[in-house]
Amino acid sequence: MLRLEGVTKSFGDKRAVDQVSLVVPTGQLVGVIGRSGAGKSTLLRMINRLGDPSHGRILFGDTDITALKGRALRQWRARCAMIFQQFNLAGRLDVLNNVMMGRLSRVGTTRALLKLWSEDDRAIALSALDQFDMAGLAAQRADTLSGGQQQRVAIARAMVQEPDIILADEPIASLDPRNTKIVMDSLLRINKHFGITVVCNLHSLDTARAYCDRLVGMAQGKVVFDGAPQTLTDDIARDLYGLDAGEVMDTAGTALPLPVQEGRPSLAVA
Amino acid sequence: MIRQTDVDRAGLKERYPETFRTPVLAHAVYLTIVTAGAGLVVYALWRFGFSPAKFLDGLGKLGTVLTLMVPPDPGSQLWKYVAALGETLSIAFLGTLGAAILALPASMLAAKNVVANRFVHFASRRFLDSIRGIDTLIWALIWINVVGLGPFAGILAIMTSDFGSFGKLFSEAIEASDRKPVDGVTSAGGSDLHGFRFGVLPQVLPILLSQVLYYFESNTRSATIIGIVGAGGIGLYLANEIAQAEWQSVAFLILMILATVAAIDWISAKIRFAVIGRRGVVA
Amino acid sequence: MLGLVLVLVFSVLSAWIGEVDPAKFWNGLPRFVSYFHDILPQLRLASLGADLEEWFWNLDGWLGLLFDTLLVAYVGTLFGAIAAFVLCFLASANLTRSATLRFASRRLLEFCRTVPEIVFALMFVYAFGFGAMPGVLAIAIHTAGALGKQFSEVVENVDMHPVDGLTATGATYVETIRFGVVPQILSNFMSYSLLRFEINVRGATVLGFVGAGGIGKELISSIRQFYYADVSAILLIIIATVFLIDWLTERLRHRLLSLDGAEQ
Lengths: 270, 283, 264
Hints:
Low-confidence stretches of chain A: 260-270
CATH topology of chain C: MetI-like fold
Oligomer: heterotrimer
Radius of gyration of chain A: 18 Å
Order of helices and strands of chain A: EEEHEEHEHHHHEHEHEEHH
Radius of gyration of chain C: 24 Å
CATH architecture of the domain at 2-90 and 164-251 in chain A: 3-Layer(aba) Sandwich
Shape of chain C: globular
Number of strands of chain C: 0
Mean pLDDT of chain C: 85
Helix content of chain C: over 70%
Low-confidence stretches of chain C: none
Shape of chain A: globular
CATH architecture of chain C: Orthogonal Bundle
Number of strands of chain A: 10
Number of helices of chain C: 11
Largest sheet of chain C: none
CATH superfamily of chain C: MetI-like
Largest sheet of chain A: 6 strands, mixed
Mean pLDDT of chain A: 84
Structural class of chain A: alpha/beta
Order of helices and strands of chain C: HHHHHHHHHHH
Distance between the termini of chain C: 54 Å
Distance between the termini of chain A: 29 Å
Largest interface: B-C, 63 and 59 residues
Number of domains of chain C: 1
CATH class of chain C: Mainly Alpha
Strand order of the largest sheet of chain A: 6-7-8-3-9-10
Structural class of chain C: mainly alpha
Strand content of chain A: 15-25%
């Protein structure tokens, strides 16, 4: 269970995240929605501790995430995989090595620095890639791939971390509709099949409604809505998005999820 | 999630054998290069008679020297030092300026788009390279034979060695210039010289100026040491004080040099900024 | 216009301080020309082989010393580049959050590159005795300063997305740099180091002037003792070596740039 208690992040006078308190039970797929600049990204980065909160605490189970340092902090980050809008791959490394980055916390430093990956780790990385039909591209440099392919590599990297929670920061904002669907479907699959908590920042309201168990709306750093997708009325949405409302609620071309069934063959790891 | 037990290793290995193969050849090449590089270092150290005991001994001495340097103190020589520093700056300034003025015509000879003759181009390039290949200190020694000890030899030395560098840099800048303005001038009835003066020069002048300023900075450093061989400036005092183990004076001189170089860098960065805006120097 | 006046004023002032004496120059100029005439030996077509042999009578000895000079430059550049590699990350604003650490490493680099290497060489000769080791150390320290600055400028311009991505997986600082930064900068670093090696070869030829090893000692003594033919012979082999090194490093750098991005 992830628990945020009065989390605040200030940059100078401005409060990017303002007194956010949330409880996310294990296994939930939470969509964080709101306009750009509402503090969604800052919030997610603080959970991974890419940024430190100015005030408040973040707890995972009984662990105070905000107090972690050094090795314990790195172990937390390994348990808390992150997916980014710009994929954040090492463009000049090949795809396999990029996925291997998710195994770093389990590989000895010397072996890692020399890229001496064990056969087991190679197999794990390949199997993750294989689920996205990307195993054949293992030897390609990451920056030669399309955006959609890069995001799939990034998700494979997150999967081999064997995380307890996945944070996705606008994972589909740079993608076309087809890749949007692939990425959202795989997040949903990870969530439903393995029961891993997913917290996902989304700009598009319709995607959020279609995929998430619960929506958290943010505006000017504060949580202004928290509830099931069906309780988010158009009026509230208009308040959340203001003038952008028309754009994010355009239903045309929005990806709809696959019906999820436990144990479907295509969901299982090969 | 992907757990070790779930992974069908054999199947993956069969389908993607290349991913499991260790790139033996690449590793071997890499290892050979590293071993050769490290081997050469070991050989060099052996050749130079390196011994850890001697090295540690030297470090100990160096430590003593450092403690003897505090506090830096010019003794009674402060004004001599200041005068010598002035001499150093003069050497750098006149040397750079003279080299720039002399190098401009020479660089035209070495620029393909000004002098089309391949032989002239090749010969002038190699000539400039030869001058550049000889260090400023060597030039200083040669000029001392001609004009005697003193700062004048230093000025000439910096002028000579920078003549080679500027000649090369200027000719590259001229070659990179845009052809069209020249055509404009010559088509209006101007001579080739007019074409250069009004077509090329306005384009390249800011670049040349920034290069000259950059070399002025680096020449300030060179001019501090040129006195070591007797060609004027603060280097003479520096060499003497080190030879006589006057470490407080040495420390003071080094601080003076650091302060001067920092001041010159700052001023020249300001001028460069004013001349060409925030653009990198083509070094 | 003001600029031109300033340049003129400074020129006159500098000429006065710098004891510029056109008469001395003018009287000396024939000597400069005749100096080059003097240092060139007489080569007769009839006895060309013997003349050349006499000119380069000590070729083996000189080549040995020149080899020392090259080794000084090589080892000095390598050690300096390694030090610069370690320090450049500490001096980069995007990878080192501690302002104190950054400030300290930047000042250290600045000190190393501002003090001329021959000054370091003079002091090291005092501490370690005559020989090539002081030369190696002097070049290494100066190189660390010069390359450290260039390296950190490269590092400050890297794409930070991979760094974030790696940090978020729980990678250590060293692993983040190894996989997030090094692949982006390696070819640039190699190219700068090769350029610096070129510069250091030139610099190492004069370190012998102060007793820090290599060909310089032989050169300064033949200049000072007016062994004319030796001066020209040594200068010629220095120039030839510098040409060769320049040519080789330039080819290597072109190879590197065309390979740009080949990871390792």
